[in-house]
Specification:
Rossmann fold; 7-stranded mixed sheet
Length: 251
């Protein structure tokens, strides 16, 4: 009997540290499946900063670098420039990428640095206690917004749409937004990741895949309820699909 589904070689078999219902485990699986399919396990480097992503290097059977909070794109720039034949992946959350590390992310994208960012968007600071993140929705409650995010009266601003912002920059080549809420969207998200990795290995420019992911613990929800909230509340604000695809235009 031929095996059609098996544990990825690039994914360590280890009990998860993530909360029940968290999407990080599914995302790890997708990344490692693509790494295996492209035959890049021995030539892959994962960079993971502070936050829930700090545990990522426990689960990837590849080389890894832990960067300071928000500085992953800066570290990845150096790694990729030195090891151009390697797949270099930044694994960042929304607080890390869209707040603490905004400058690094924007300028790396603008320079067209040839690495890929996997941007996990759960609209909250996960590890540090559920504070409001740049992607927290209007009206969504957080530790630092107990009455809900109010963009005007409380001066909290609006949710940042990172991909739409980066799409205006000349250095970005492939930007896509997926989700892990359903089997259909999981499969589509894997396709986006594969396109981004292939584009990186062709040296085409900056690539990023944003992935909407539930955080039941800090949303104060049960896992199934969190998935429904992601579909009903997050997706209208952060629509899925390829936001920018210039892969065919660049030879």
């Amino acid at each position: 009997m031929e095996a059609t589904y098996k544990h990825p070689k690039s994914l360590v078999s280890l009990q998860t540290k993530y909360c029940p219902g968290c999407g990080h485990g599914v995302i790890h699986r997708l990344i490692t499946e693509v790494i295996d399919e492209l035959g890049l396990q021995g030539n892959s480097i994962i960079l993971n900063p502070v936050g829930c992503s700090i545990w990522a290097d426990l689960y990837f059977a590849t080389d890894s670098v832990q960067a300071p909070h928000g500085r992953t794109p800066a570290a990845a720039t150096g790694v990729k420039r030195m090891l151009r034949d390697h797949l270099v992946v930044c694994y960042q959350g929304d607080g890390d990428l869209a707040a603490i590390g905004t400058a690094e992310a924007v300028h790396a994208a603008n320079r067209g640095e040839k690495f890929t960012t996997i941007f996990v968007n759960n609209a909250i600071y996960g590890m540090t206690g559920g504070q409001m993140a740049p992607t927290t929705l209007i009206g969504q409650k957080a530790a630092t917004a107990p009455e809900g995010r109010d963009p005007l009266e409380a001066g909290m601003g609006y949710p940042i749409k990172v991909l739409e912002m980066l799409a205006t920059l000349e250095g970005t080549r492939y930007l896509a937004r997926g989700s892990v809420d359903s089997p259909v969207n999981v499969r589509k998200t894997k396709q986006y990741i594969k396109k981004a990795f292939e584009a990186q290995m062709r040296g085409l420019g900056f690539t990023m895949v944003e992935i909407l992911s539930p955080c039941p613990t800090n949303w104060g929800m049960k896992p199934v309820e969190a998935v429904e909230w992601l579909k009903d509340s997050m997706m209208p604000v952060f629509p899925l699909g390829e936001i920018k695809n210039q892969l065919e235009a660049v030879k």
